[in-house]
Amino acid sequence: MRYSIRGPRRGPALLATSVALATVAACSGGSASGPASAPSPGSATAAAPTSAPPSPTPTPTRTYPLSSAPRTVPAVRAHEAARGPGWKPAPAGGVVIAANSGGLADEGKLIAGELGIPYRGAVAAGPGDVELALGGTGAPESYTLFVQGGGVRISGPDEAGVFYGTRTLKQSVKATGAMPEGTVNDRPAKPQRGLNVDTARKHFTAAWIEDRIREMGDLKLNQLGLHFSDDQGFRIESESHPEVVSAQHLTKAEVRRILALAAERHVTVVPEIDSPGHLGAVIAAHPDLQLRSAAGRTPRGAVDIANPDSAKIVDDLLREYSRLFPGAYWHLGADEYVALMAKDPEATYPELARAAKAKYGPSARVQDLATGWLNDRAAVVRPTGKTLKAWNDGFFTGGVVNAAKDLEVEYWTGKEIGARPPVSYLSQGRKMVNLNDEYLYYVLGEPNDFAYPTGRRIYEQWTPLVVRGTAPVPAKYDAQILGARFAVWCDLANSQTPAQVAAGIRLPLAALSQKVWNPAKPTATWDQFRALAERVR
Questions:
Q1: Short-list 83, 93, 73, CA closest to 172
Q2: Where are the alpha helices (H) located in 325-450, listed in sequence order?
Q3: pLDDT higher than 70, residue 76
Q4: pTM (global) more than 0.90
Q5: Are 170 and 219 in contact (CB under 8 A)?
Q6: At residue 299, does pLDDT exceed 70?
Q7: Helix 206-218 and helix 252-264: axis angle, to 10°?
Q8: What pLDDT does 56 receive?
Q9: Is 432 left (phi over 0), alpha (psi -120 to 50) or beta?
Q10: Would you give the DSSP letter of residue 62?
Q11: CB of 235 within 8 A of CB of 200?
Q12: Band of pLDDT at residue 15, cut at 50, 70 and 90
C-alpha cells in the first residue's frame, strides 16, 4: 500500500509518522495487514496519532561460550579466552602484511597457500583477514595471536615468532576447522630445539631432508644437525678435497636449496665434521693419516693427531664448509677417539704420548693432545662468529690443557671410559644441549642394546633436565640446558628405508617438540596427544 501525506509535516508529528511506517514495514515485510490498516488517500484521519506507537522489538544478539585454547602440537603456553565465533578461512578473507613488516612476505605467502586464501601483501587489514606484523618487546621467537571480530592478527618481535604464530593458526584450523576467539601469548621454553641426522652412514636425498625441515617448522623446531662425515661416507661435494667425497652425496647446489628452505622455515642447519675420530672416509683417501698403536693396530676412523697433515686436511674442510653453511652454529665432533678409549693410552699409543709432552710439557698426556686438537679446530672456525659445539666425551678433566670455555657441550652418553655426569660440566658453568641416548637416540638396527625410542616414553617420562639415563639434574641448572635434539644414527644403514625412518621418528619428534616448547606438564593423555599429532601433521 502506498501512503500519501497531505501537506508538509515537521517536528514530532513527522517523526511519529516515520516511526509508524517503519514499524509497519518491520512487522509486515513492507506490506500492510488487516482491514483499514491505513486511511485512504485524502482522508482527514491521516493526522498524526495522539500516542507514540510501541518501539520495534530488537533482534536478539547471539551469545557464545568462552573459547578454549587452540589444539596444536606443541600446545600453546597461554590462551586468554573470549566470547565470539573465532575465525575460519573464507573466500572473502586473505593474508595481509602490516606497515613496516615487509620481511614477513614469505611467512604470509606460505600461510595463505596452506589455508587456501589469497595473499594481498602490504595493505590494510579488512574483515576476515589474517594480518601479520612485526613489533613488540617479547622474547625471541615469541608471538601474540589475537582473534576478534572475524579477523586474526599475529605479531611478534622477530620473523621467527610470527612464523610460529602462523603454525598455530594452521594447526588449529586443521584440528577443528577454526581458530578460537581470544588471545594466544606463546614462546619457547628452550632456544635450541631440533633433529640430528646422520647422513654420513646412510645417504638421504635433498628431498627427504627438505621434508623433515617442513615437518620441523610446523612443530616449532629450529635446529637441524647434519653429521655428514664419518667412517662410512663423506656426503657433501667438496672442491678442496674431492677425493674424500662418497659416490652418493649432496651437491652444493642441493645444500643451498636445503639451506634456503631451512631459512624460510626458521631452521638453522648445524653442520658437523667429526674429528679426530670418525674420519674413515678421509683416511680411505689418505691412508698415511691413519693412527697406529704400538702393536700395529689401526683403529677405524682415527687419524694420527701427532701428524701435522691430519690437521691440515681437516682444517681445509672446516674452512670450506664454514663458508657454505651460514648458520650460527658449528659442531666439531670430538667423540669416541679410540686412543682415549684404551685403558692406558700412553702405553698403547706412545707416539701420541711423546707428541703431547713435546707440545704441552712433561706432565701432558694423550688427552691433552686431543684437547689441544679440539681447541685448534675451534680456532679455525671461531673467526666466522659461529657458536661452537662438541660431544661430551671430547671434554676431559685433570689434564694440563682444558677445552675452550666457549664450547657448548652436546651431551649424549654416560657410557664412555671415564664417563662424567652432566653436573660435572654444568657446575663448571658449561652450557649444554641434551641428546640423551636413553630417550633421544634412534639407532638403525638397534645395535649395542639401543632400542627405537617411542614418542610415548618421551612425552610421559623425559624433560630437558633428564640429560643422562632417567634421572634429572637439579633444577638450578635449567637455564644452562639450552635445549635438545632428537638424533637419527645409521649404524646399520640398511635396517630401514628413508621412508621407514621418517615414519619412525614422527611421533618421537612431536613429543620432543612439546617438551622443549612448553615446560608445563602436559594436560592431554598420550593417546589424546598422539591423535592430535596425527591430525595436524
A1: 73
A2: 345-348, 350-360, 366-381, 422-426
A3: yes
A4: no
A5: no
A6: yes
A7: 10
A8: 52
A9: beta
A10: P
A11: yes
A12: very low
| For residues 440-452, average pLDDT | 97
Which of 126, 40, 140 is CA-nearest to residue 90? Answer: 126
Grid cell locating 527: 593417546
- CA dist., res. 35 & res. 22, Å (int): 19
Burial class (CB in 10 A: 0-12, 13-18, 19+), 340: buried
- Dihedral pair phi/psi, residue 197, rounded to 5°: -125, 125
pLDDT of residue 35 exceeding 70, the answer is no
SS3 of 158-195: the string is CHHHHHHHHHHHHHHHHHHCCECCEEEEECCCCCEEEE
Q: What are phi and psi of 145, to 5 degrees?
A: -120, 115
Query: What is residue 21's predicted lDDT score, i.e. its pLDDT?
Result: 32
Q: Is 321 helix (H, G, I), strand (E, B) or coil?
A: helix
> Which grid cell sits at 265?
622455515
Average pLDDT over residues 3-22: 35
In this structure, the number of other CB atoms found within 10 A of the CB of residue 35 comes to 5
Which residues have CB under 8 Å from 168's CB, separation 6+? 70, 72, 76, 143, 145, 184, 186
Query: Cα(83)–Cα(157) distance, rounded to whole angstroms?
Result: 27
* Rounded (5°) CA angle 258-260-265: 95
Grid cell at residue 505: 621418528
- Other beta carbons within 10 angstroms of residue 202's beta carbon come to 24
Strands 182-186 and 143-148: antiparallel
349 phi and psi angles, rounded to 5 deg: -130, 70
Residue whose grid cell is 670430538? 334
pLDDT at 409 (0 to 100)? 98
